[in-house]
Amino acid sequence: MNKSQTILRTLFLHTPSIKAVALDEKFNVSANLINLLLGLIYGSISILYNFEYIASFKTPLLRILFVPLFFITFSIIMIYLTRVGYTLLLWAGSRALGGPGILRTLNRISGIILLPSILAFPGLVNLTINQSLLTWELLGIILSLIWIYFLSAKALMLSQQLTSLKAYIAIIMIFVFFSSVYYMILPPTS
Predict the structure, then answer these.
(1) Transmembrane segments in this chain: where (predicted)?
(2) Kind and range of the H or E element at 116?
(3) Which residue among 20, 96, 113, 141 is least enclosed by CB atoms within 10 Å?
(4) Is 130 contained in some domain?
């Protein structure tokens, strides 16, 4: 089985594939490439949603090159920071409930766990520009969170030797913490 098949099976909670990704260091490059791809996609969606703003620049060089490049670069950085943050949260959840908390393994698997977040990108971009969510964007966010939840719990069970109950509790704690930080940084507008 090649790397892309293993990653695809990992996304569908295939136990041997999740173990392979978590334990085999050959997947480090794949996880980094996935994050780069996610950053490019997120940046492209940001450009699409902010097209009027970008078009308002008078200078063609800004409008065509520098502002879109800024959106892409910022999006790539944001995806990598999200991965680092999520890795640390997985580590904290694992350690809190008795797992070994091996950062190297959690970093590798978190790069792939974030892949379903692609479904949430349009809704997240829409929220950052203070627009109301469309139904399909809200469904994308919900589906993405559910998928990431189950993928994260299964990854913790297999890579950190946690029981299923402890893994699900750890992920709930992570989601609550992540939501509270998100709320503090971007409070809802009234």
Answers:
(1) 29-49, 61-81, 102-121, 133-153, 165-185
(2) none
(3) 96
(4) yes
